[in-house]
Fold:
Amino acid sequence: MSFRTIDPREIKTQEMHAYMLGAIAPRPIAFVSSIDKDGLVNLSPFSFFNAFGSNPPMVIFSPALRGRDGHTKHTLENVRQVDEVVINIVSYDMVQQMSLASTEYPKGTNEFIKSGFSMQDSVMVKPPRVRESPAQLECKVRQIIQTGVRGGAANLVLCEIVLLHLREDVLGEQGSIDPFKIDQVARLGGNWYSRASRGLFEVPKPLTTLGMGVDRLPEEIRLSKVLTGNDLGLLGNTENLPTQEEISSFTGREDVKKLFDTLGGDSENLTMAVHLAAHHLLEKGQVNEAWNLLLARHQKQ
Ligand SMILES: Cc1cc2nc3c(=O)[nH]c(=O)nc-3n(C[C@H](O)[C@H](O)[C@H](O)COP(=O)(O)O)c2cc1C
Structure:
């Protein structure tokens, strides 16, 4: 058996980071809500996260200094100002919106609004909880340990859970958490995630785009009875909508004309049918096609 042996001092930080993400996986995701001293809310995911003891119940997550330039993440700035967070567990039906929330929006942007999650008041701490999350951990930050000053250095945020909220529908008959019902996702290397109950899948990182956000989607899409949170997350992660030219050439296609003819029906039914067709496209990762279809419907109204 042959091995590649790596000395961290001989490779770039980014390479070491990538090897670590690939090797130490799958990692649970802490979806952390925090506030700054003026009460501005922030929501971001961190997969350098785990549980370390239950008496007192302690978890640690790490907003690292950004690899590229050593920039401090807003979550770290916030916990230095207000020593409270809520760690929200991410289920599969939240994954696209959670990924959108990891976008590097400017300071002061509330990612609850950008990613379309609902803020629910906490009981023991000031930052709000993510209502859609099946398990919400209200925490007091007990200590922050900085391991270095250069890009990639960890900042271990040691948190004590002071209140735990579990959604009733993820509990089994004995009152314990049913792993199939809670349906968490975890993070691996690259774009890979794992759905605990099913296996691996990919979500491209929203690092190169500044998605418009769920808050800026047209109302009929945002309030759709058919489109799921994951669908809205994918649509909200789009930076530029198809141009008028692209939409016209899309609606001119024979298969699309046929689709609109067959979907037919009254206005509400047609909207539902178009949303269902868009949902199927989004499930296959065809985001641009889905946008074309939704906007074509919008323009026909
Ligand atoms: C699933 C997932 C896990 C992540 N885990 C970490 C992590 O453990 N540490 C980290 O520094 N950044 C992590 N990131 C990137 C941050 O979420 C991203 O830098 C975010 O913009 C930070 O937001 P903030 O500046 O508002 O705190 C992760 C991103 C995703 C999508």
Observations:
- The longest strand covers residues 135-146.
- Residues 91 and 183 are 5 Å apart (CA to CA).
